[in-house]
Design a protein that fits this description.
Layout (H helix, E strand, L loop, with lengths): L1 H49 L6 E4 L4 E7 L3 E5 L5 E5 L3 E5 L5
Antiparallel strand pairs: 1-2, 1-5, 2-3, 3-4
Family: Belongs to the YajC family.
Keywords: Cell membrane, Membrane, Protein transport, Translocation, Transmembrane, Transmembrane helix, Transport
GO cellular component, one term: plasma membrane
C-alpha cells in the first residue's frame, strides 16, 4: 500500500511537469522570436539617435528629408531647403542617410 502512494505521488509530479513544460517552451519561443529581436532593434535605434550630430542628413518618421542644423537632448531643427527650417522631436527621426545612399 505504501509503495502505491509513492508511485501515485510521482505520477502527479510527472503530470504537473507535463502541464508546465508546454508553457515554458512557448515562453522561450516567444522570447527568441519576438522579444529579443525587438530589444535589439530598440537598442540600435537608441544608439543611432544618440549618435546624431549637426550636419547629418536624416529622414523623419513622416518621410521628410533634411539636414540637422541644431540639436539638443530632445529637439532637432532640420533644414529642408534654403529657407525652410522645421523643428522636430529627436524621437521622430527614422534613420540617418549616409553619404553613400545620397
Amino acid at each position: 500500500m505504501f509503495s502505491m502512494d509513492i508511485a501515485a505521488g510521482q505520477n502527479q509530479s510527472g503530470s504537473l511537469l507535463g502541464l508546465i513544460l508546454p508553457f515554458v517552451l512557448m515562453f522561450v519561443i516567444f522570447y527568441f522570436l519576438l522579444i529579443r529581436p525587438q530589444q535589439k532593434k530598440q537598442k540600435t535605434r537608441t544608439a543611432m539617435l544618440s549618435a546624431l550630430k549637426k550636419g547629418d542628413k536624416v529622414v523623419t518618421i513622416g518621410g521628410l528629408h533634411g539636414t540637422i542644423i541644431e540639436i539638443t537632448d530632445d529637439i532637432v531643427v532640420l533644414k529642408v531647403n534654403d529657407v525652410t527650417k522645421l523643428t522636430f522631436d529627436r524621437s521622430s527621426i527614422s534613420h540617418s542617410v549616409s553619404n553613400a545612399e545620397a
